[in-house]
Amino acid sequence: MRLTCPLCGDRDRREFYYMGHATYLDRPAADAPAEAWDAYLHLRENPCGPTHDLWQHEAGCGAWLRVTRDTATHEITAVELAR
Amino acid sequence: MRVPGYGLMIDRDAPLKFRFDDTWVNGFEGDTVASALLGSGIRLMGRSFKYHRPRGPLTADSAEPNALITTHDGARRIPNIRATVQPALHGLRTRSQNAWPSLAIDALEVNDLAAPFLGAGFYYKTFMWPKAAWEKLYEPAIRRAAGLGALSGEADPWRQEKAFAHCDLLVVGGGPAGLMAALQAAEAGTDVILADEDEILGGRLTREAEQIDGRPGHVWAAETVTRLTALGVRIMPRTTVTGAYDGGTYGALERVSHHIADPHPDLPHDCFWRIAARACVLASGALERHIAFPMNDRPGILLASAVRAYLHRWGVAPGRRIAVFTTCDDGHRTAADLRAAGIEVPAVIDPRADAPDDAIRGEVVATRGRLGLKRIEIRTSGGGRRWVDCDALAVSGGWNPTLHLTCHLGARPVWDENLATFLPKAGAVPGMTVAGAAAGLFSTTQTLESGAAKARQALDGLGRRHQPVTLPDARSEAARQIAPLDVRAPKGVRHRAWLDFQNDVTTKDVRQAAQENFASVEHMKRYTTQGMATDQGKTSNVAALAVLADATGRGIPETGTTTFRPPFSPVPISAMGAGAEGAGFAPERFTTSDPAMRKAGAPMIETGLWYRPGWFPQGSEDWRAACTREAAMVRATVGVADVSTLGKIDIQGPGAAALLDFVYTNTFSTLKQGRVRYGLMLREDGHVMDDGTTARLGPEHFVMTTTTAAAGQVMRHLEFVTQCLRPDLDVALISTTEQWAQFSVAGPHARTLIQSLVAEPVTDETFPFMACGAVTVAGIAGRLFRISFSGEHAYEIAVPSRYGAHLWRDLLARAEALGGGPYGMEALNVLRIEKGFVTHSEITGRVTAFDIGMDRMISAKKDCIGKAASRRPALLAHREELVGLRSASGAQITAGAHLYNQGTRPDAENDQGYVTSPCYSPALGTYIALGFLRDGRARMGETVRMVDRVRGQDTLVEIVAPVQVDPEGGRARG
Ligand SMILES: [Zn+2]
What pTM was computed for the model? Predict the structure, then answer.
């Protein structure tokens, strides 16, 4: 598997650290209800098809990336800086 | 036997000798072990897996199921080498496998007589009962009787290598299609790698009498290779592309020195390549099919294409009278080539209605010859039967495109009714196109054309401009039509017809599987073990599923194929993991004091990737004595320790303080410049991630210290927070762990030592407890932190790493002059347990701030990572809480032991907690520990029972506060 880091270019999977679903980008407000925190921390879809992952180019530039990946074909359709 | 005037690739002026079992075998440079053995008249090369049937080579290539041998001696022994691809080397030791006492007289050949009982599922049905006998009796016996070659049992001394390569276009296979594909792409200026499993490129051109552009095919191939090299193509001979993976990554095994009799010791045996290719042309050719006729496994029965290969490439004929049995035109080509070489062809048998006139229309229904073929029985289409004497039989059942790589990402091949074969599914692997015989194009003209065309298709995909290359002129034989795959065992014939030679699977086994309702192809495979041997069923898969289709009354397309997985051919694990043996298993990180500490006899202990000293033995001290002495020394005089392995993260910018407030539970924006604060960091789920001290060196400049273990995790976390959660903060981070050598100086004489070293005054006014600042150490700009992990008056002093080794020596000399010395990890651990400081033995990832008694460190005035989740009610009551433990009996406390209330049964139900960090405390003169106890903070003074089932300890311990030495902290402050 290879990912194209927007800053460094096409790199081997071994340079990247995988964190999980891109849900982690949408942190609830400090005073959000418990349900919102539960959803943020624990509840994930398990799609057959496109999904969004967070990867860090840990052995490269250090950038956190939002990767669009197809769980059925493993095709990577987008790699963007996570914001 | 050798055939005069033949042998394109052997050098008759370079004879060589190698040993096969107890015989010296003559061969020539260019021979394989199999060709040299056949050339010497030896056809019997192995015994089959289950029935111990005598076997000879079926192929002349890597698909070989039978001719498996062991090469080399002692620890260098390599089992299951295919004699058909192993180059014959002068002096090489080779041995047959799975035969005892000898290949010709194999005692376990009796298995073959028992064959009616040993069919599919025999083991499953027979060895069911009694259960205990499986491990003790049945399995060892079966393993002895069945099997392939054995490993030496010693450490593998072969040097292995792994490597990475990148290219625009990877061409898999160096036959006519692959050569043309590489040429087309190289002419367009593309960066090309051409890999072929053979030593010499050319594919079938090295094994046939064929003309291209008016010269022998192998000459054209060699000239093309020269041209490709000049164009910058990286040619990789002896390299099998073994797998296709996501994103254009391919695995490949290069047999680097298998062809060298006396390789240089630095030369690897194999190299496992990971090739990243933007596009790929698969030109892997095709594999000939065997025919499932009765007793089709005798030595001397070979595939027709293999017979031609042995004749043309190696000048070898597997017999003097070679009959041919074929269901396609290819067998007739073998007959013609043999006759042209003066070899007698007593019969050509072809069951097709439109068989050529000189062929016998019929089929082979029986064979004879225990250790090698002697005669065959033919039944003609008219029904007549007769025996024909022959010592070899060339068989062709048509061709299967070598499409394995197209299936590695999950695609299934597509059945083609006209060609009676499976073809690769279009688009099966992104970026891969399939050319030549692998795509079902079997004439040389077609393969040349298709190689160039598929390369152009790949170039279009890469956005490269190209001019079509000129196609060479090849013999354009009539399309070699294959008869529809006919798999029905002849009616009225009892004998077994083999499909999978290596695993001894016959047509009967497959039919039996269907009968017992293992009718899905995946079930049949597992029930019969067809295709599960080291050759992965290359010569048997399609025939086996055709039998299954017939037995279940389905068509071949509905029956489908089993899954093709990497590797395409066997890859030694030692090549994939090359470099990872011993110290290569993980990177090693060394502190600047490492050489001096080793010289002092300190045993170095792995902590993550770092190596840290356990203790510094004096005289005949064991670890306990040294540790106790060092811990007492720190409390009495002064000790020095290297703490450079702690993670250091430099944090700068206007947003630095806000970032720290967000990632730590407590507040750092209020920290004054020149001061240090202890910080606790949570994960977003409310559990403790790490702890450490952070110093404020300037208004917008902090240095964070992490634990050794969590340095990487914390850095990753800070990057995530700054990039993704708080991009509003203007802050920059960098790890400086490697840039600073940092040493702890601890004990009552610590200030005396530090003051003797640094230029600046070090007093309670200039450097009070938890102060930090710049100092000058022998003219070098350093940093001084007054922090303590031992509970003593202590400092950490840091200098740029290049001065670390020198400062360590200097510190040691000064400490020794004050009656102190170095202390290691064991003493460091004792000192912190006495003080109740936690490490990752306590903050294991399942522990909250509440659990370690630091809940009040979660500031109520601000948000922080993990705050919301840490407020969950279940995390704030009835928890296992951090406590100190003290031996009530004087007996040792052991790590991992569990705690129970006295009078209860020590089982899981009554479990009250566990011990995390035990030690012998020289300060208290007894065994103490840290641990977790249910509702522990409310239970001070209680005595509980400690049970360690691993070490057999069972004793009473007293519950005390975690801080057991100097609870008021006066020693550190004073
Ligand atoms: Zn990058």
Answer: 0.89
